[in-house]
Design brief:
globular, 11 helices, two-stranded antiparallel ribbon, 40% helix, 303 residues
Length: 303
Amino acid sequence: MTRDVTILEVGPRDGLQNEAGFIPTEKKQQLIRMLADAGLTRIEATSFVHPKRVPQMADAEEVARSLADIPHVSFSALVPNRKGYERAAGYALGEINWVTSASPAFNKANINQTIEENLEAFRELVPLAGESGRLLRFSIATSFGCPFAGRVDPDVVVRLAELALDAGAGEISIADTIGIAVPDEVFSLCDRLVKAVGSERLSLHLHDTRGLALTNTYAAYTAGIRTFETAAGGLGGCPFAPGAAGNVATEDVVYMFERMKVKTGIEFSKLLDTSEYAVSLSMRMPLGRIRLVEKKEQSTIGF
């Protein structure tokens, strides 16, 4: 299908990782199948982290094992270190997501490393990913603000993105981990990054803590960003970022772009069903707005 923007669905990982009650593996697998059936072609399926740190991801191997039979999707998994990469290496994952932070304080709380130590560990993975043909993504958390240290200098984010690409990253993800950004900040940073490294190697990951994630998505689009990370139902949060709310909802982003005549390649009616299923797995209030539109109104929304 023709696409003007790419939606990278993070619901099965970032959307569910903060849920207190363990979600059965078969329900996570069902969510992934529904997302693929709705037309999502990039899906972050799980994370290979220590189960004591993120208990919800304790079934990473079982989830990853079920991906090989799903066609036309590039699946990814988050890994925090080389051991996580080695666990992920045996599965049908076209992408690996590595996370650092633009905030030294958040790095210390999240992975107990400095930025420099984390970048050096990332460099060690580059040849391994290259040998396997996997896309190695480098996600920069707290790109706009940190729950421990406050505002983050945009110069630090741009420099870290350049260093990661020089080290061998195939794509850079810019994350508003605590949902603190406003549209002019998003436009300014994204505009700088597009000029510095090119839009084809950038994605944006937004949280909706203050209800601005959709507006920030539009701001990033006008700056040249064309890949957006979203979660069905607006689920999500970060176990290591106090106050972080859910991700921008996939259905809200798809609705906005399709109404703008910007193609996403996603079948909206199936996406709504998928979002409802995603929300049913959560114990928390969903943030997606468009999901609440009655089915009888779907024929009038313009696509």
